[in-house]
Amino acid sequence: MTAVAAVAAAAVGAVTLPAAAADHHYPGRSHAAVYISQVRYDSPGRDDRSNWSLNQEWVDITNSARRAVNLDGWTLRDEDGHTYTFRHVRLDGRSTVRVHTGVGYDTRRDLFQDRRAYVWNNDHDTATLRNDRGRFVDDVSWGRHHRGHRR
Questions:
Q1: Side-chain half-sphere of 24: how many Cα atoms within 13 Å?
Q2: Positive or negative, the Cα torsion across 120, 126, 127, 130?
Q3: Nearest-angstrom CA–CA distance, 150 and 27
Q4: What is the pTM of this model?
């Protein structure tokens, strides 16, 4: 019974990766106020490139501080160089914004890259967040080349 539960948990983890499950915070590493809190790199169902399926692939960016953060000019990038640049985005304190791959209308809680193809590789990839000066803020990796976080 325990083995079945472990396999089921592993299958769920492959679809949505909480950043904590990816060695999100190393001992001695200062905890940034803005960080990648969760990644769904494998949208549920068949990868048919429909807008619904593309928007089921996303990255959550969380601001754990009380004060809002201006994300204008920040970037979210994968290992292949696909880059999303935040435009006119203010992330309120203690809130999260979800960055979807597909097409949609931006709101305070949901942003859309307006792509017509998947960004995040299912087998392995790294989501990297940088500020408007190009400085590393956070990253999350998964798959066979999982490296955890780097600076």
A1: 15
A2: negative
A3: 13
A4: 0.79
